[in-house]
Design goal:
40% strand; 4-stranded antiparallel β-sheet; mainly beta; 15 strands
């Protein structure tokens, strides 16, 4: 079990594992943090993500709708390429798509991380023109693989009478779907919380 990526809801953990019950050697899985502080039994992300070979380095973007990962099982350009998948309206991951050239080459390309605003990507590749071995590179994210636009909510929880800063469970829901898109605890010293949410919806 390795390469963890925590979703912006603060409760969904994506990771890579060679545990039994998967589709291949190393698969991508997720587990959910319950209210009692325990994690659910890991759930395989399914055949739209995983293959009989290796899927690794999951990165769930702060939009909580776009998953980037590397694979040597899907049709690609080299040994390991970078792929992405988006959730459909039912919350299921769509079939993985290759991020394309020039991000992917005949080399080993993996470990993509995308900035919150979706403008920049950072990844690792063993380009022979680099400093040696695997190097880190930065690039502008092409439009077709950009994540959804985000909005941010920051707040402070405090006692109305004493003004004392409080640690409290903060939950944000999508009003239309009823889905909890963020659930975490405000900072016990400052009372602050910070949530990133996809644009275009109404929240409570």
């Amino acid at each position: 079990e390795s390469q963890p990526s925590l979703a912006p809801d603060g409760r969904t953990l994506y990771f890579a594992s060679d545990r039994k019950g998967g589709f291949g050697k190393i698969d991508l899985w997720k587990s959910y943090l319950q209210d009692d502080g325990t994690w659910t039994e890991p759930e395989n992300l399914g055949p739209n993500i995983n293959t009989p070979y290796d899927e690794q380095s999951p990165f769930i973007h702060p939009d909580n709708q776009t998953l980037y990962f590397s694979s040597d099982g899907w049709p690609g350009m080299g040994g390991s390429d970078i792929y992405y998948s988006r959730k459909d309206t039912a919350g299921k991951w769509q079939k993985a798509e290759n991020a394309g050239y020039p991000i992917n080459t005949y080399l080993e390309d993996f470990c993509l991380v995308v900035t919150g605003n979706g403008s920049k990507g950072y990844f690792s590749t063993n380009n022979p023109n680099g400093k040696g071995g695997h190097d880190l590179y930065c690039f502008d994210i092409p439009q077709q693989i950009k994540p959804n636009a985000l909005t941010f909510v920051k707040g402070t929880v405090y006692d109305e009478k004493t003004n004392e800063k409080l640690d409290a469970v903060v939950e944000v829901q999508n009003i239309k779907t009823g889905e909890t898109v963020y659930k975490s605890v405000s900072n016990s010293e400052t009372g602050q919380f910070y949530a990133s949410l996809p644009q275009g919806s109404q929240y409570a």
